[in-house]
Specification:
The protein is mainly alpha-helical. It is built from 13 helices and two strands.
């Protein structure tokens, strides 16, 4: 009697675990060592290039790095700023992790965040009351706005086969222009000014009532730790648990691992993949609502005021990068997002020291590239190893 040898187990792609083992995704010792080595090398090169660039512009590299550290973790206001910024990035990153786990690449969180905040502003200004329930409605409207903005790519993906990478990217610009149109029309959201006012109406909405501002965990001289960080961490923990332990998470991971097998066991692409895109959009929109109710309290050309700069000031892109560095795992995204928050907070202090803003942006970009590149290289290595294993089997 002949005995058929069991087929070798298929190795899960990067960022995924074996479906039979649930959440027990393990990195081999060699991969961990390689990642650490690449990270050290990349950060060293980035710091060297940034220091050389700063020196060429006439500034002191030592003073620059001291300002970055002091601005991110050097004081209570600095740590507060790091956590506040990191919270917004984390909410976007959690949504990006969900989409990536379904095998989808959502490039539209910038537009989803902006459009979500626009919807939150519309609801907040229309409500005849303020307070906790009003804040809840504003956040729900923002999340719904982000989900609606992701609905179009989902429909095009599973109805016409159009790549979500293209549609989500292009819809960013549509969202920006939509906000610009709304805040420049008096019959929409442009602020109301008295008829005898010497100041013309600006391209911004009226402020939400002060009662629609989110509460603070700590409030002192020069700092205000927003409750947003608690909301973001709780969302990350819940998402990590559901992805790893729930039937929905199993179907999501199965769909991202092999859509053909997922279809054979009854998973519907439109429901799983489309739902993942809608959730990613909802998380990005919620981030816009948290940004709105936490600090800004008004739309101004898509958040073009104060700390956050033009539109969403790259919070969407940072969320994508944080998800990538975290290997698409919401739990790992927590420290990664805080690190990105530290870069943003430190960069703000660095700009106040007189260093040109363009140089500040380059320094931040080099550090971001340094922490992102090792994860990308390991993914490429793992995919090549997977392809080699499949060639050997055939």
């Amino acid at each position: 009697m002949s005995v058929t040898a069991p087929a070798p187990e298929r190795e899960a792609p990067p960022g995924e675990e074996s479906l039979s083992q649930g959440p027990a995704w393990r990195t081999t010792a060699s991969d961990a060592a390689l990642f650490t080595l690449l990270l050290v090398i990349c950060i060293g090169i980035a710091l060297g290039l940034a220091s050389a660039l700063v020196a060429v512009t006439g500034s002191s590299p030592g003073e620059v790095w001291e300002a970055m550290i002091q601005g991110s973790v050097g004081s209570t206001p600095a740590i507060t700023s790091t956590l506040n910024h990191g919270a917004i990035t984390l909410v976007v990153a959690v949504g990006a992790c969900i989409a990536f786990r379904a095998g989808l690449v959502n490039i539209g969180p910038e537009g989803q965040l902006t459009f979500g905040a626009l919807m939150g502003t519309t609801v907040g200004l229309a409500l005849p009351f303020e307070g906790g329930f009003a804040i809840l409605l504003v956040l729900l409207a923002a999340a719904a706005g982000g989900a609606v903005w992701a609905l179009v790519p989902a429909i095009l993906k599973y109805w016409r086969g159009v790549s979500e990478v293209v549609t989500t990217l292009l819809l960013n610009f549509v969202a920006f222009q939509t906000v610009s149109f709304a805040v420049n029309r008096t019959y929409l959201l442009q602020e109301t000014v008295p008829a005898d006012s010497p100041v013309a109406a600006q391209p911004q909405s009226d402020r939400l009532p002060e009662g629609d501002r989110l509460g603070a965990l700590a409030d002192g001289v020069g700092y205000r730790l927003q409750i947003t960080i608690v909301i973001a961490v709780v969302l990350a923990l819940v998402a990590a648990f559901l992805i790893a332990r729930s039937p929905w998470g199993l179907r999501l991971r199965m769909f991202g691992f092999n859509p053909h097998i997922a279809r054979r066991v009854g998973a519907k692409p439109g429901r799983i993949g489309g739902g993942a895109l809608l959730l990613a959009g909802a998380f990005a929109g919620l981030a816009g609502g948290l940004l709105l109710t936490g600090v800004v309290l008004r739309m101004q050309g898509g958040f073009s005021s104060g700390v956050y700069g033009s539109f969403s000031n790259n919070f969407g892109w940072e969320g994508l990068l944080a998800a990538l560095v975290a290997r698409f795992r919401p739990l790992y995204a927590i420290p990664v997002a805080i690190f990105f928050g530290a870069l943003r907070a430190g960069g703000g202090v660095l700009a106040s020291t007189g260093v040109d803003s363009s140089i500040v942006g380059v320094v931040q970009a080099l550090v971001v590239l340094a922490v992102t590149l090792p994860a990308v290289l390991l993914q490429v290595r793992a995919r090549r190893r997977q392809a080699a294993m499949q060639r050997e089997r055939t």
